[in-house]
Amino acid sequence: MLRATLLKLSESPRFAQWVTSNGTTRRMARRFVAGETLDEAIEAARACNNLGMLASLDYLGESCSTTADAQRARDAYLEVFERIHKENLHANVSCKLTQLGLDLNVDFCQGLVVSIVELAARYDNFLRVDMEGSAYTQRTIDVVKNVRARNPAIGTVIQAYLFRSETDVQALLAFGCRIRLCKGAYKELPEVAYPRKRDTDFNYIRLMKILLPSGFYHGIATHDPRMIAETIRWAAAQQISKDDFEFQMLYGVRTDLQRMLVKDGYRLRVYIPYGNDWFPYFMRRLAERPANLGFLLRNFLRS
Ligand SMILES: Cc1cc2nc3c(=O)[nH]c(=O)nc-3n(C[C@H](O)[C@H](O)[C@H](O)COP(=O)(O)OP(=O)(O)OC[C@H]3O[C@@H](n4cnc5c(N)ncnc54)[C@H](O)[C@@H]3O)c2cc1C
Fold first, then answer.
1. Distance between CA 208 and CA 92 in Å, rounded?
2. Alpha-helix runs per DSSP H in 87-195
């Protein structure tokens, strides 16, 4: 209920206006967002590297209304790869296809992705295509498949809350695609996604057990100690090496767990978002932890 309210509010322009102009909420957002500039994101990635963690940089933005906006987002991603290379960082890049024009024209969007992946490959790096709401799942997978047929420096994300995900995992593995497994962060209907958390968790473990022995390098993205413990237990039982997969967590979330995994010799990648367009990302993070809802709403109603 609280989660649904927050995800609904993430679509409200009035709420967006208030959140992004209010000093308190801007400060709250900084817990989850490294900053508004690439320089700040690079510093955050360097700090992660210094702690023995990998990073994935995400230039925040979702959907765009013109091809010029999409091209600007593409240019921003090219710049991120250039900076990662120049600064010698252990970092890759995550992006969203709606930011690269998926809603405008799929072929146009795919062309932009190709140019980003070509640069990623030139630097021996990797582009991870985030997964958005279920209206985009098939188109995202199609674009990733098409681009990957020309260049393997691209992978995508599977959300354990979707009923379709096991079929998608099998299809992506059939052509060697690297997958990030997460639970899923969007508001979905019960026709397409498990409404109950325990079913999503069950599916998460099932999918993890398909991914890990597949022979490809995947990301287990979660802060849930039970998902992490079961992954560690199962990988050890199957004699899957700690180097054959990585855990992934979000910037500012469960930093205690992040450090613990690194100390125990696991590979850990921190997803580092940055940029001006942080409102929807911030709302999804709040929705994952409704304890923050009361605080936010009290401030909103008082304003
Ligand atoms: C690296 C990474 C990339 C992701 N990419 C995508 C994507 O492409 N598409 C997509 O739909 N989703 C993505 N997600 C989000 C994901 O789907 C979940 O919404 C999110 O990770 C919360 O689920 P959880 O696995 O941590 O488990 P949960 O059961 O939600 O949480 C477990 C515990 O983690 C802690 N926790 C979780 N979230 C927060 C938070 N925001 N603030 C404070 N504590 C928290 C709490 O202690 C909580 O009890 C990504 C997540 C990660 C880590």
1. 22
2. 106-122, 137-150, 165-174
Q: Return the ∠ at Cα 256 (arms to 185 and 231), rounded to 5°.
A: 60
Ligand 1, atom 28, residue with closest C-alpha: 224
pTM above 0.90, yes or no: yes
Q: SS3 for 289?
A: coil
In a domain, 129, yes or no: yes
Please report, for residues 114, 140, 220, 261, the alpha-carbon distance to residue 255 in angstroms, rounded to integers and kept in the order given. 34, 30, 16, 10
Domains held by the chain: number:
1
**For ligand 1, atom 29: residue with the closest CA:** 224
Give the pLDDT of residue 169: 98
β pairing state of 218-221 and 54-59: unpaired
**CATH number of the domain enclosing 103:** 3.20.20.220
22 in a structural domain: no
How many helical (H) and strand (E) elements, i.e. helices and strands, does the chain have? Answer: 13, 8
Mean pLDDT of the chain: 94
Angle at 10 between CA 169 and CA 162, to 5 degrees: 20
Q: What is the pLDDT of residue 185?
A: 94
Side-chain-facing half-sphere of 69: CA atoms under 13 Å: 16
User: Is 94 part of any domain?
Assistant: yes
Indicate the range of 26-30, 77-81, 194-198, 253-257 predicted with least confidence.
26-30
> Which of 180, 269, 284, 285 is an active site residue?
180
Residue 2 lies in a domain: no
Would residue 285 show up in a list of annotated catalytic residues for this protein? no
Q: How does pLDDT run across 19-37, given as a tens digit for each residue? A: 888 888 888 888 899 999 9
- The residue segments making up the domain with residue 190 are 33-277
Residue type, 72: R
Residue 153: CA count within 13 A, CB half-sphere: 19
